[in-house]
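In practice, a research group might receive sequence data for several interacting partners and want a quick structural hypothesis before committing to experiments. The following worked case mirrors that situation: the sequences arrive first, and a predicted assembly follows.
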Amino acid sequence: MAHISLPEGLPGILGPMAISPESTKALRKLAEVLLRGPNTLTSAEREMIATYVSAQNDCCFCQLSHGAAAAEHIGGNYQLIDQVKSNYGVADISEKLKALLAVAGKVQKGGKYVTAEDVERARSAGSTDSEIHDTVLIAAAFCMFNRYVDGLGTWQPRDPEVYREMGQRMAHDGYIRAN
Amino acid sequence: MAHIQLPEGLPGIRGPLVFSPATTQPLCDLVEALLRGPSTFTLAEREMIATYVSAQNDCFYCQTSHGSTAAQHLGGSFADYELIARMKQDCETAPLSDKMKALLAIAGKVQKGGKHVTKADVERARSLGATDKEIHDTVLIAAAFCMFNRYVDGLDTWQPRDPELYVEIGKQTAALGYVARDWKRPLTTGASK
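A structural hypothesis for the assembly, expressed as tokens:
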């Protein structure tokens, strides 16, 4: 049972989104721009940042749905996503993405945890200012989405198949759509 | 020096907002809907929730600018600014309604993490008259400021300490809101309203 009365059968963020249309429009647009808008980071990379932060925040719905979206962007490689969540340092991803995930992990703890050294490491691995900006904002945004989903005690199914389908829709159709 | 090259002379979130126009519109639409859209909360109450969470997150720019906006919505007197200061220090002993205290307690739990919110927290708010929509909005405002605070501090933005500047920000924001603003415009104290 969620903390407030939400429409039945809508998992995770979709329940609260259904009762608050104005904020939902802005939230969907924000997710679309951050995760699928024009960017030098791939959508897979951005979904991995979202997934990693959601895992650090222990938000089941967000880490499974965005993890599935990330996997669908890279041909269904769910194993890589599991590695990114459990120990990205040994995952088969670029040094640049590892450095950006380190920045994202600091943002998850709190904005002030990000150090000049964290940023310097990302920059020396080839990150631009815009990529560092986007990493900070994606990480910050998922600190919001995760709290929205868990703070209302939403229903979060455990069936992986539910998330596989959700991930495919998120990866291919995006975030601005009817529920 | 901020962590990335931001436009000069723009305090707090204004630097990143001008740096990244594509994300600015949804961010401003969100804060406008949450803090100024149709609601059974007053404008002051919503700015107070934003201020309280920003103080818990130790974000100087957000707590001071939204605190000033809240005080302006209350009338802008010295006593109004004092009330905001007391709320930031300890919301349970500040002269606020019991309902507001219960909602700030929920916001404080959200600040720690979504899972910290308990049934008892929600029950307390509900028994003091909070509706489901008000509880929803409190959770989302608190969550959104966990984003804004991290955006502002995670990029190590310039956050001036001059209190007069924040009085000006509070006046402007209380009057104009968050959309259709020219964030590039440098702020000066004692300027027009």
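Before designing any experiment, note the following. The mean pLDDT of chain B is 96. Chain B has nine helices and no strands.
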